[in-house]
Amino acid sequence: MAGWFERIKRGLSKTSEPIVRGIGDLLTKRRLDKETLQDLEDLLISADVGAKTAHELTQELSDEKFDKEVGETEVRAFFADKIREKIAPYAEGLTIDATKKPFVILMVGVNGAGKTTTIGKLAHKYKEQGLKISFAAADTFRAAAVEQLKVWGERTGCPVISRPQGADPAGLVFDALKESVERGDDVLFIDTAGRLQNRSELMAELQKIVRIIKKQVPDAPHACLMVLDAAVGQNAISQVKTFKEMTDVDGLVITKLDGTAKGGILLALTREFGLPVRYIGIGEGIDDLRAFKAEDYARSLMGTAD
Fold first, then answer.
1. How far apart are CA 273 and CA 277, in angstroms?
2. What is the C-alpha to C-alpha distance for residues 80 and 105, in angstroms, rounded to an integer?
3. Can you tell me the distance from the alpha carbon of 83 to that of 56, in angstroms, rounded to the nearest whole number?
4. Contact predicate 55/41, CB 8 Å
């Protein structure tokens, strides 16, 4: 079975292959001039690294190599190194504080981003560390969301607190937190709705959930993770902006990096919001969610991973 680094490399291939090919086409042993720099900047923008970051990277390249003869391998290695430097401060996994029982993790994000699956995968990871986990199915609007969470509950051996469809989400969270405290859980995951078309209702619902949590555990939620589908590209920026208005998002989980040519969005998100990327997802398997490592990502993105 391929190692995790190989998986990231493969997973980011849809993003890296056009970059590698594009840089190769532009730089077959030629001098670095203004036109080439502009073409390189456009190439980076096409991978969704963000216009500001693309400009910074090509400017840094220009500062060191302008009017010098450069090769594609040299340029890709240069970009990989600079990208690693830029995102390293945001590669920060989530640490569960054992003194907070339960450690409450509020999961937010639009429907379809992979929230429920991410809860299941994280629960599996934490269970392997010997932690006691439970789930609160607070997306009471969608029966499918509750059923999916129950499937993950069975798969990971975690109790799921749920109520009939249409029940008050904040009331469910109140009960779930009470039960979790009584059980002596280490971690409580709270799954939430993500219906942006009902934005004002969703905002009110999330804020009510947070108020209810704080009434019982004043310093909770201890983490608020936003799950994003990498394939939505630049739309991820507006999603984070919207959810940050609703609640205190303090970390990102980027899923489906293996299904997109827009893998540079991870770089754009960290630069835009300064939020840590806690985990990335490559694939559907239960072990396919891992802590984010800046060097693995930068080298895979630029095809310098061999």
1. 11
2. 33
3. 10
4. yes
Q: Which of 69, 66, 72, 15 is nearest to 44 (CA)?
A: 15
DSSP class per residue in 17-30? HHHHHHHHHH-SSE
Q: pLDDT tens digits, residue range 84-134?
A: 999 999 999 999 999 999 999 999 999 989 999 999 999 999 999 999 999
Q: What is the pTM of this model?
A: 0.93
The pLDDT tens digits for 2-13 are: 687 888 888 899
Contact assessment for residue 95 and residue 224, using Cβ atoms and an 8 Å cutoff: no
**Which residue has tokens 């129950």?**
150
Task: Give CATH for domain 4-90.
Answer: 1.20.120.140
Cα 51 off chain centre by: 20
Q: Which residues lie closer than 8 Å to 266 by C-beta, 6 or more apart? A: 87, 230, 254, 257, 277, 280, 292, 297
How far apart, in Å, are the Cα atoms of 229 and each of 145, 260, 263, 266, 280?
17, 9, 10, 10, 10
Task: Record the tokens describing residue 65, joined without a space.
Answer: 């190599």
Distance, CA of 306 to CA of 304 (rounded, Å):
6
- Top-tier CATH class for 103-292: alpha beta
Number of H helices, E strands in the chain: 12, 10
Residue range 206-249, pLDDT digits in tens = 999 999 999 999 999 999 999 999 999 889 999 999 999 999 99
Residues 175-186 have pLDDT tens digits of: 999 999 999 999
Question: Domain coordinates of the chain in residue numbers?
Answer: 4-90, 103-292
pLDDT tens sequence across 69-86:
888 999 999 999 999 999
Residue 15, exposed/middle/buried by CB under 10 A (0-12, 13-18, 19+)? Answer: buried
Does a cis peptide bond (omega within 30 degrees of 0) precede residue 159?
no
